[in-house]
Amino acid sequence: MDADGRDRGIMPAYRNTTPSGESFSLRRGLAGRLALGVVLSVFLITATGAAGHAAMSTNESGNRVVVLSYNIRHGEGIDGRIDLARIALVIKSVSPDLVSLQEVDARTKRSNGVDQAKELARLTGMRAVFGPSMYFEGGKYGNAVLTKLTVKKASIIRLPGEPRSALCVMVEMPGAKGEMASFAMIATHLDVEAKPRNESPPLISKLLAFNMNAPAILAGDMNDVPESPTILALGRIWGNATSRKGLFTFPSDDPVRQIDYVMCRPSNRWKVVGSRVLNVTVASDHRPIMAVLEWLPVPGAN
Question: Is 78 among the domain residues?
Fold first, then answer.
């Protein structure tokens, strides 16, 4: 769904926050526009307690990750209450390594000036990277990634639509070997209109054009059903880890369709250990969807 505002300017700043309350902003000099492929280095990472949880969801090889995608509707449930504490409880209930969040507010009027990515980092004990898509009600609005893993760097690109964007975060997996030691997590929220939504898949893929065979995960609200042109286009490059029948995510109180996904590439190197939709009906208008993924070694490699 769209934000309910008219102030549609693209954000000039990117911010990373940690549960300890530290934050930083990096401003680019491109006249208020997010530049395609601008790389922003993360340099304040002291997330207390985050590293201690990593082993809970990884296997002995360190190549297994639990991924959750959740459109939180700025924390507002279908009961009309904004309650980040219950969003945090949902997240913590599955102990994910990586979380893609959509419709995240940062100091907006409707969210009472709360920096939601920072607050969710504090409540979950995870690291947070916020990727703004637009100005909204005196603050910012966009996507975020929460993670227990070490954040190395991040980039953000503009996508067609409301405005929309994709946030790419490079993370390191403790104990992982080889290619999985560093990989990409992309969080996005595609447009509700068909034309800009269908134009988005190739732009997202360009985030990783430097190495098409490197491990990467894409998770978010794609605003379209599995048999749609958008999802079929993504499926030509990304393996759909949430392709099982009946994984309906919207609307949360009586879901009748799937519009939220976890995807991975290259698809022949990932094993989908499991996937499911969490039975959460009130905290947002979407239900969260999760997948457990395992990165496979090259056949025949020692």
Answer: yes
Q: The whole model's pTM is what?
A: 0.83
| Pairwise CA distance, residues 214 & 67, whole Å | 17
Domain range enclosing 45 = 13-295
| Helix/strand/coil for 223 | coil
Cβ atoms of residues 165 and 203 within 8 Å: no
d(C-alpha 71, C-alpha 33), whole Å? 24
Residue 275 and residue 246 in contact, taking contact as beta carbons nearer than 8 Å:
no
Task: Count other C-beta atoms under 10 Å from residue 5's C-beta.
Answer: 16
**φ/ψ of residue 192, rounded to 5:** -80, -20
- Contact predicate 129/16, CB 8 Å: yes
Count: domains in the chain: 1
Query: How far apart are the C-alpha atoms of 230 and 235, rounded to whole Å?
Result: 9
**Cα diameter, the chain:** 56
| Per-residue pLDDT tens over the stretch 101-159 | 999 999 999 999 999 999 999 999 999 999 999 999 999 999 999 999 999 999 999 99
